[in-house]
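Input chain follows. Return structure tokens only.
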Amino acid sequence: MWRSLRRPEVLATTLAGAGILMVTMGARQSLGLFVAPIDTTTGLGLVTISLALAIGQFTWGAIQPIAGAVADRYGPRAVLIGGILVMALGSAITPFMGSGFGLIVSLGLVSAIGSGAGSFSVLMGAAAARLPAHARGAASGVINAGGSFGQFVFAPILQQLIARLGWIGAMWAMAVMTLAAVPLVGRLTTPIATPVVHTHADQGLRHAIATAMKDRSYLLLHAGFFTCGFHIAFLVTHLPGEVNLCGLPAAVASWSLAIIGLANIFGSLYAGYCVSRYRSKYVLAAMYGSRVLLIAWYLTMPRTEWTFYAFAAGLGFTWLATVPPTAAIVGKLFGIRYLATLFGLTLLSHQIGGFFGAWLGGLTMTRFGDYGWMWYADMALAALAAVLNLPIREAPVVQTGTAG
């Protein structure tokens, strides 16, 4: 399968997409490290900060179909450059925000909008439009692995910067690091000599969305991805708090997040491999089912640093590895002409789950003093997601009607 990436133009496009996602997701997935320092400095409280990050989860998802639609219509270059610049701006202004409303603006809106515009929907759509069909599965795995590698790199670096410079200096440093993704946009969006042939009839964006929202398999995919967002947002926001509850050093949280990113590099590459060999719905069902078992294992183990590291490695293997098979199903159902938009809508469902995962985690901790009920909810939702993916069919949807 990896032979499909050997052509120089295919490899360059794939690595450019992976590099951009490394920066945008690496920075975004490390924001949980800032929760405790911001709370200590501002006294805003865990619930207020969790709400700002929860709104960021929702905003990141809400911007995906919008950014995808703009990229589908006008091209991805301006969308990606604008997203990176806006994300850097959100990080840069956060230290000046001393209220809950200010954090909602900087992290919940500005930074999340920028990160979302430079994330999965636009990147996957841009790559798919420039790659031959036989290379897309492998390329999606590599691009997805870029986001995981970013988490592996950013989490320990930012933890060290927080310790040495304080959270304000670390936030400004993150803004500067975000700008490193700008030069990669040109490589990803370079026009190709041989245009990709679209196998689905193009009846317009509105018609494509209307058709998708009536399709049972597409809606089941959304439901499963909702639970994935709940799971990831809860952990990325509150894992540092869980570590602190166990009386372990803050470094355990940053290294756990880094291990999640490292493990997901291999998980993403393996997911890309599986997409080309097995039905994507079975790949997704297996991933969600494994999370139920891992959380059950974690809840029965003593809370040591090695338990957290082993838990992080196990969860990390499927962390964002759900993206390639999910995008593959959307592409199989509706083609790649409007993949950025339709996959963006799926990501919106993911991030609605993310909103509840981040926000309810803060409420649960404040109300009960631990995250116990969140772990049980996480297990139940993961089991439900595994079941919901099984009836999905993976065949092109026959589109009828007029163009929209």
